[in-house]
Design goal:
The structure holds 2 protein chains of 2 kinds. Chain A has helices spanning 2-18, 73-79, 86-89, 125-132, 163-167, 197-209, 223-230, 261-271, and strands spanning 31-33, 40-48, 54-62, 97-99, 211-215, 236-243, 250-258, 275-276, 279-280, 282-285. By secondary structure, chain A is an alpha+beta fold. Among the domains of chain A are: 23-60; 206-283, Alpha-Beta Plaits (2-Layer Sandwich), CATH 3.30.70.330. The two termini of chain B are 21 Å apart. The radius of gyration of chain B is 18 Å and the shape is globular. Chain B has one domain: YVTN repeat-like/Quinoprotein amine dehydrogenase (Methylamine Dehydrogenase, Chain H, 7 Propeller). The mean pLDDT of chain B is 91. In chain B, 53% of the residues are buried. By secondary structure, chain B is mainly beta. The chains are: A alpha+beta, B mainly beta. Chains A and B meet through helix 2, helix 3 and strand 4 of A and strand 1, strand 4, strand 5, strand 25 and strand 28 of B.
């Protein structure tokens, strides 16, 4: 095999050096057989491979008859026309024509076989909607059932929009400007006019702003001890000492929440660096937990 | 159905045309080279090289011997269908937009665009049987239309020429005198540019598609509005089934906006409507861009669509299409 290849190489060597293997004229012409009665078409081509060997390529394809075509005599004659223009240079590998791999259906606007109830109004969105689920359709503006959706309510402009009631701030501190952004723009729940502003704020104060972190606590410090220590500065809402779940001993730090910010400030200034149980306390603002 | 995809063009398709026997499909695109395909299996038969601009439309003679094409290179060319040889070139001062052979193939109507200082015209040329007698002279020139004429076709028995275009008005002209006979009603007619016009098999009525998102069916003689088909997108291409009571509309959003929206938002479907009930029968998806050209095979069993994506898709209808009951 190798010898044969070498022989080939020597035989065509000079020519190959001249022009990069443009020896196609030496090959037998392309032969197309068929398609036969089973629709099999055979294309026999010859080419040189990389080693300069002459290779016979037989491509067998099945030609599908896609449509029952009754061709006229002139059409059958046109079948035999030789290709011309760019189609002449086209080789079997150029896949200009492909059968779609995807099955494409004639998509019916409604299920085949189902009768249109109102043929004339089928383009009407209301009619389509009413065909969908008439029972479920209740207008929240006028309370009508099965006629239209809330957004399509003809009385939308007349009736005061229901959202405005729930949007109205129940407390006085929500300035109307807060609910100001144009309707339709997204407003996070916490910023909505209706949201309990003050509650939210106090919650945040308790959690973050008025929370004091105490570190370098001795191991046997417990929550009542901490409460005892911090109560002197003002009302304390919560005391917490981190406890190791396995050993049951303190992990050396805790949190104290004050009701008033000023008290917390005072506690930090007084107790930071305070010697407590042989250890020097470190008291500072608890930084909000990164979410 | 599994459509056949034909990727012979490198630019958007502009026009598709079957020959009378329905075995050849001619496609025009903006890539200068009209192409002919076998209409049953989609094999490329040949190309017609010679134009130097986008090819806007074409027509084939009844005996499938000659092809005429109109191009933006300001020429309309006659071709030998079987060899791709250029037979004759009509020169104009402006891009040739629409071409059509008359019954008998002795005349052809060609429209030219409004281009620089030139007004749009409709010109009728004699097509000589013997090429040596072929001249460039126009038998009739119709002017007086404002805005580009997108389509000009022959009326019944070659007595009239029907034009439609940018001014959204359909006009019927006398072929002998060149006089305006009828004009479509402003109220009931299209509101925006008419992009396409296609005749029924017997030429008794025709359909127009417009960028106003509708297609309308008209009587060829009286120019009375028969039917209106309303869609969601501008209509670029229309055709009437030669055998069934079906019309097909193709279009989609503006090509320039395609990349900015979801593919589904474009609605690049060929929409089938019942011709009489004006009701939507169904849609055929597949193109990645707006549909610019549509044509039914004269046997009514297949249709092809050409899109802005450069593909021609050839669809052979399934049996369910023929069994649709309204």
């Amino acid at each position: 095999m190798a010898a044969a290849a070498a022989q080939q190489k020597i035989r065509w060597g000079e020519l190959e050096e001249d022009d990069g293997g443009d020896l196609d004229f030496l090959l037998p012409p392309r032969v197309v057989v068929g398609p036969d009665e089973n629709g099999f078409k055979k294309v026999i081509e010859y080419r040189f491979d990389d080693d300069g060997n002459k290779v016979k390529v037989t491509t067998t394809t099945r030609v599908r008859k896609l449509a029952k075509a009754r061709l006229s005599r002139s059409a059958i004659e046109r079948r035999q026309w030789p290709k011309f223009g760019d189609a002449l240079k086209e080789d079997a590998g150029s896949r200009l024509t492909m059968v779609s791999t995807e099955e494409i259906l004639l998509e019916r606007p409604r299920a085949p076989g189902s009768k249109a109830d109102e043929p004339a109004a089928s383009g009407d969105p209301l009619a389509v909607a009413s065909k969908g689920g008439a029972v479920l359709m209740v207008c929240r503006t006028c309370g009508k059932k099965g006629d239209h959706w809330t957004s399509k309510c003809p009385y939308k402009d007349l009736a005061p929009p229901t959202e405005s009631f729930s949007d109205r701030p129940p407390t006085s501190d929500g300035p109307p400007a807060a609910g100001g952004p144009a309707k339709g723009a997204y407003v996070p729940p916490t910023l909505r006019g209706g949201a309990d502003r003050s509650g939210g704020d106090s919650m945040r104060r308790r959690n973050d702003e008025n929370s004091v972190r105490v570190t370098n606590l001795s191991e046997d410090t417990r929550e009542p001890d901490l409460l005892e220590l911090f109560r002197a500065f003002g009302p304390v809402s919560r005391v917490y000492v981190a406890v190791d779940q396995k050993t049951g001993s303190s992990r050396g730090f805790g949190f104290v929440n004050f009701v008033h910010r000023e008290d917390a400030e005072k506690a930090i200034s007084k107790l930071n660096g305070y010697g407590y149980d042989n250890l020097i306390l470190r008291v500072e603002w608890a930084t909000p937990r990164p979410n | 159905m599994r459509p056949i995809l034909m990727k012979g063009h490198e630019r958007p398709l502009t026009f598709l045309r079957y020959n009378r026997d329905g075995d050849l499909l001619f496609s025009c695109a903006k890539d200068h080279t009209p192409t002919v395909w076998y209409a049953d299996n989609g094999d490329r038969l040949g190309t017609y090289r010679g134009h130097n601009g986008a090819v806007w439309s074409c027509d084939v003679s009844r005996d499938s011997a000659r092809l005429i094409t109109g191009s933006a290179d300001q020429t309309a060319k006659l071709w030998d269908v079987s060899t791709g040889r250029e037979l004759f070139s009509f020169r104009f001062d402006a891009p040739a937009r629409s071409v059509e052979f008359a019954i008998g193939d002795a005349l052809a109507v060609i429209t030219t665009d409004n281009f620089m200082d030139h007004v749009p015209t409709v010109q009728v040329k004699h097509i000589a049987e013997d090429l040596d007698d072929q001249t460039d002279e126009s038998a009739l020139v119709i002017t007086g239309i404002k805005g580009r004429i997108n389509r000009a076709v022959w009326g019944p028995l070659n007595r009239t020429i029907i034009t439609a275009g940018e001014d959204a008005t359909i006009r019927i002209w006398d072929t002998e005198t060149g006089k305006l006979l009828k004009e479509s009603d402003k109220e009931s007619g299209h509101q925006k540019t008419i992009s396409s016009l296609s005749k029924s098999a017997d030429w008794s009525h025709f359909i127009t598609g417009s960028l106003d998102k509708s297609a309308k069916l008209w009587d060829s003689r009286t120019l009375t509005l028969i039917k209106t088909y309303v869609t969601e997108r501008p209509v670029n291409a229309v055709d009437i089934s030669p055998t069934h009571d079906t019309v097909v509309l193709g279009g989609g959003q503006d090509a320039m906006n395609v990349t900015m929206t979801d593919r589904r938002a474009g609605k690049f479907e060929a929409k089938f409507y019942h011709k009489i009930l004006q009701e939507e029968i169904g849609g055929v998806k597949g193109h990645f861009g707006p549909i610019n050209a549509l044509a039914f095979n004269p046997d009514g069993r297949s249709f092809s669509s050409g899109g802005e994506d450069g593909y021609v898709r050839l669809h052979h209808f399934d049996s369910d299409y023929f069994n649709i009951k309204m």
